[in-house]
Amino acid sequence: MELNVLSLLGKQFVRRISTSACACGKRNFKKFPIFNKRGTRDFKARQAKNPHPDVPIHTYGVRPIGYKSGTSFVTIKELIPEMIVPDLTGFKLKPYVSYRVNDIVQPPMTPEELFGAVYVKKIAEDFKSGKLGPDNEPLEPSPEERLTPEEAKEKVLSIRSDIV
């Protein structure tokens, strides 16, 4: 071991040179993570047979579809994504909407507008053809007009639960 001493303005600087290997050959590989695709073929083969617990298996942001129990992987059916695609045979519209289409801004419907959209046409037809009774009730009501308020509410709730 060689020792160099330098003094400057009353301070002593010592420079030492070591001939032994730094950290006895150990390297800090925690700074360099080796994920699935990195490493040699031998490393990948060893990881496939017996994965080392300190080397994480990188999933690239994909959520797991189960959990590991001992040495086996248990798949949970509810975690597998299910793609629901409607049958579009005979569908005339094309799937592309141009960005040049103007935005349509429509305020929410008021009860009066909803009544006008659903019932006014039928009431006007019944009035013109004289199919209204003495209390302005239809003589030939449609199936929707025959419903009681409770039946109408149940029908709306069943349609809403089918959608959700």
TrEMBL record:
The protein's name in its UniProt record: EOG090X0IZW
Region annotation Disordered: where it falls in the sequence: 128-164
Main location: mitochondrion
InterPro entries on file: Ribosomal_mL41
GO terms for MF: structural constituent of ribosome
Domain of life assignment: Eukaryota
GO (cellular component) term, any one: mitochondrial large ribosomal subunit
An annotated GO BP: translation
Lineage: Eukaryota, Metazoa, Ecdysozoa, Arthropoda, Crustacea
